[in-house]
């Protein structure tokens, strides 16, 4: 199970690396676009700016900036605020990874080479995933987090990830508890 748990950290690490690379790219680009010294006249000359590409415009227009459904951006409906499309895609990918790691089957052997009961196996995996989600949950919890500064993403984006990772950890803990309750009931029922 620990192999799967390490793979669970790859996705947030890739997201953070992409954010840091994006932030560094824009920092270097903005520094180059400000002013340079012309070698002949020693006067500041603005660098040539390039318009964004069509692919970049399409990505921002259709995936990055719009609301999840047609409507206003981040409009609360009751107690819930819908995230943007890109946040929804990233959160759904993280949940999908958790579900895949929960149900993927590897030939698990217990003590003495006996096959582990599938309910106990699901309970063990769910408990492990609940614990492995906690470091990512705490890493995204701070308001003045260093990751906000490193990636250039907004606090609200980190807050969306923080809330959904917490929901995932709680769901895995509930699955763990239910699976162990079923496993214990099966053991008690088979003895009587």
From TrEMBL:
<dbReference type="GO" id="GO:0000293">
    <property type="term" value="F:ferric-chelate reductase activity"/>
</dbReference>
<dbReference type="InterPro" id="IPR013130">
    <property type="entry name" value="Fe3_Rdtase_TM_dom"/>
</dbReference>
<dbReference type="GO" id="GO:0005886">
    <property type="term" value="C:plasma membrane"/>
</dbReference>
<feature type="transmembrane region" description="Helical">
    <location>
        <begin position="82"/>
        <end position="104"/>
    </location>
</feature>
<keyword id="KW-1133">Transmembrane helix</keyword>
<protein>
    <recommendedName>
        <fullName>Ferric oxidoreductase domain-containing protein</fullName>
    </recommendedName>
</protein>
<dbReference type="GO" id="GO:0006826">
    <property type="term" value="P:iron ion transport"/>
</dbReference>
<keyword id="KW-0813">Transport</keyword>
<keyword id="KW-0472">Membrane</keyword>
<keyword id="KW-0406">Ion transport</keyword>
<keyword id="KW-0812">Transmembrane</keyword>
<dbReference type="InterPro" id="IPR051410">
    <property type="entry name" value="Ferric/Cupric_Reductase"/>
</dbReference>
<feature type="transmembrane region" description="Helical">
    <location>
        <begin position="164"/>
        <end position="185"/>
    </location>
</feature>
<feature type="transmembrane region" description="Helical">
    <location>
        <begin position="6"/>
        <end position="25"/>
    </location>
</feature>
<dbReference type="GO" id="GO:0006879">
    <property type="term" value="P:intracellular iron ion homeostasis"/>
</dbReference>
<dbReference type="Pfam" id="PF01794">
    <property type="entry name" value="Ferric_reduct"/>
</dbReference>
<feature type="transmembrane region" description="Helical">
    <location>
        <begin position="130"/>
        <end position="152"/>
    </location>
</feature>
<feature type="domain" description="Ferric oxidoreductase">
    <location>
        <begin position="126"/>
        <end position="186"/>
    </location>
</feature>
<dbReference type="GO" id="GO:0015677">
    <property type="term" value="P:copper ion import"/>
</dbReference>
